[in-house]
Amino acid sequence: MLCSTLYSAVALTGSTLCFGICCTGLVKGPLCAYKVTFSNRSQGLEWGYPLEQFSTREVNYLYNHTSWFTVCVEPHNVVLWNVVLFCILLALSGAEALLCVVQILNGITGCVFGSGVRNNKVMLWNLQKARPLWVQNLQELGEEEEVQQSAGQLFNPPLAHAITVATCGNTFACGSEDGKIHVFKVVGTRFERQVGFKGHSQGVSQVHFVNFLSHPHWLVSGGNDGKVLLWDASTGSMTESKGQAKGGHRRKAKSVKGASKEGADHNTELEVKAFSPKLCINHEEKVNWICPAQLKGEGWIIVADQSSSLSVYPITGL
């Protein structure tokens, strides 16, 4: 981020210089050497803008190329620039300067505020009072399940990547960096987790509820592992933890003693059996964006990755 900000600052300097040169050229004409007569009646050359005096007398003086050659002595072959070229350069330099300013501001705000969002929390907000009503820490959910973390989870904390709300209005899902998908239900001024399962081997980049299938709890997810999966979030629920996280408060995680790797693998196996995808699509590329859509009465999943093309997969076999 720092490098892109520095590059943008250099580009802003260049675009500002180009903008100034274009403005000067449109107002004063070309910079060249012209003959002047000094007080002692001797003649010499002086660099400047000799055509500037015509701007007050002739509207289209910039188009009069003949006067350039009669007035300008050096350079001998003055560049036959025109108004259209300078107007194009003026517009491009102005647009580039604007984009560079946006990039610089984005870099500055990212450095100042970027670390504040990496807290593994999902919040329910009251927009009228601009304060959170309920806070759930995804890291504490994993600790409360008393499952030993794998090596991959140590490097992939459960940062929330995407949130989607079902059409019923009180259910939403969240995908996290550790590959898990959490489904929550809003009850009053708080929410409780209904389902939590391991959906992808890498981070979950996108989750979307499908609103045109048999019920509103069909969920499609896309991950960094190149998989696009369709889930039925109404077919079961994970074992709820003994307590729920409270809004604005943190609780101490339970200590895990005597947990073996075999036990963790067994719990993961049970979790996968309890929740398995109804449709598995191997996209083979990192998924950046997905959108379930109904086209001509049939269900489809539109997938975008890092390439310039979209992929469309049918929803079949349900």
UniProtKB/TrEMBL annotation:
Keywords: Membrane, Repeat, Transmembrane, Transmembrane helix, WD repeat. WD repeats lie at residues 197-241. It is a multi-pass membrane protein. InterPro entries: L6_membrane, WD40/YVTN_repeat-like_dom_sf, WD40_repeat_CS, WD40_repeat_dom_sf, WD40_rpt, WDR53. It is found in: Membrane. The keyword Transmembrane helix applies. One of its GO terms (cellular component) is membrane. PROSITE patterns: WD_REPEATS_1 (PS00678), WD_REPEATS_2 (PS50082), WD_REPEATS_REGION (PS50294). Residues 238-265 are annotated as: Disordered. Belongs to the L6 tetraspanin family. This is Uncharacterized protein. It comes from Acipenser ruthenus. The lineage of its organism: Eukaryota, Metazoa, Chordata, Craniata, Vertebrata.
